[in-house]
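pasting for ref
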Amino acid sequence: MLGLVEVNDGIAGDVLRALGAESSAIRRSVETLLARGDSMRSTGPLPFSPDVKKLLGSAVEAARHFGHDYVGTEHLLLGVVRRQGSIGARALESVGVTALNAYEKILLVLDLEPPDGTLIDGTTDAFDNLTDAARTLMNKAHDAARERGNDHLSTGHLLLGIARDGDTVAARALHSLGVDARKLHDAVDALLAHSTARLPFTPKTKAALKLAADEARELGTDGVGPEHVLLGLLAGQDSVATQVLRDLGIDRERLRSLIESGEP
């Protein structure tokens, strides 16, 4: 990670600067996470850790994704940010650099159109099979996030998106279960006020969308609709939306039965 920061004339350096990530801030974050001391210094070549080996494999995959016959700093940067939970990825996240915004900025710097296939979770695969109603839900969720001055899309925003469109199976199911829209909004807002997430799509939001796709497959439907997103939110763990729904007394199996019956 520090090697990427030191290379000033590479694509990765251009991307990090474009994203407002100062090299000194990244360096401080990495060194804090490493908690390094004098005892860790070495004058000889160091062996690659298993995580670094996986990172290099991820960089090669990124190069192939772009159709490049070389592995450059831009591919190494993507290799770092795609290794969620690694020291490099956490350091970049601390200065606002995510896999998604790095990927988008690399496309811009290299003047490329997005290649076919998915390299970064959240770019296309989460939305490939959404119904028109679910896409409308996503737009309403984005509106809810912008209105609150949030720069990420959380599960709470997805839940607000569901509540804002009363003509979907999901919204009617909530109404049938006695959920008051105003109480739902207040409950979500109370929890969002304590959120510190910065990602355009939080990991829990991505997980909820994947769970929604699983629900759609289990129910034998062709597309992922708002009702599947609602089930995905309720199936999650410790997210804003999951907490709100459970606090409101929503039972997942009862909700699922209502949706399966088609008469919520």
